[in-house]
Design a protein that fits this description.
Distance between the termini: 39 Å
Radius of gyration: 16 Å
Number of helices: 2
CATH topology of the largest domain: N-terminal domain of TfIIb
Structural class: alpha+beta
Strand order of the largest sheet: 1-2-3-4-5-6
Number of strands: 6
Number of domains: 2
CATH class of the largest domain: Mainly Beta
Largest sheet: 6 strands, antiparallel
Strand content: 25-35%
Low-confidence stretches: none
Shape: elongated
């Protein structure tokens, strides 16, 4: 069973982001049955390996920062961006924001602006 979650990166970089133990990783290289991952924070030395045969991420090098709830918040922000881009009605961005954040468990963590 997988010990990670995936989601798409921001609208500019459509790469897959892997979330494991409250840290986010991006793919560094794909070699054989392994995908090598690096932390998404530029100066962080953390690395991990995704073993395709076991569908598990194994952390290799430690992070230089603490894990936090940024992962879930960034997923909500990406959801808002996609909804605003794909909405074909005449709703304003504020209306779209209010509709999504009202029903989302992390809606109180983001603000419009």
């Amino acid at each position: 069973m997988a010990n990670y979650a995936t989601h798409r990166g921001n609208l500019r970089h459509q790469a897959t982001v892997y979330t494991h133990e409250m840290y986010q990783y991006r793919q560094s290289k794909d070699f054989g049955g392994r995908i090598y991952l690096k932390c998404t924070l530029k100066d962080c030395p953390a690395t991990a390996i995704l073993r395709k045969d076991r569908d598990l991420i194994e952390a290799r090098r430690g992070h230089g920062h603490g894990g936090d709830t940024y992962c879930e918040t960034s997923e909500l922000i990406n959801l808002l961006k996609v909804a605003a881009r794909d909405d074909l009605t005449v709703r304003s961005n504020r209306e779209i924001f209010n509709t999504i954040t009202r029903n989302h468990p992390l809606g109180h963590r983001v603000s419009f602006g």
